[in-house]
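Below sits our specimen:

——
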Amino acid sequence: KLQEKPKDSGKVTITKMFDFAGEEVRVTKEVDSTSKEAKAFLKQQEKRQSAAPASLPTVSGVKRPSGMSSLLGKIGSKKQKMSTLEKSKLDWENFKEEEGIVEELAIHNRGKDGYIERKAFLERVDHRQFEIERDLRLSRMKP
């Protein structure tokens, strides 16, 4: 299910509910009201609101689900499933926000001690070592 909370600053808060390992997981995301995601969300909300009043016929003021339509309603209302990778990513993002280490991680990864910088350094060293060994082999072959 999705929920909307409009704010004065032009932001829309979208809450999605997922099923992960039998428990309900809520994911909240705040997006700009002019983004594609927010517009799609608002259209979906309008469709749900317009379809809700005429959902089931009433008998003497009480809604009674009929056989086939209630089965189709149950099938259509399944929660989206969340994979383990998505759940791990969500947990990591929440942990970074709670601990306040988002900026620190960004600075660290860009700096000299970052993973990408270390990988590039090791590749340069490996290539340089290969060139030295190749030059040594070629010099020994030409007597």
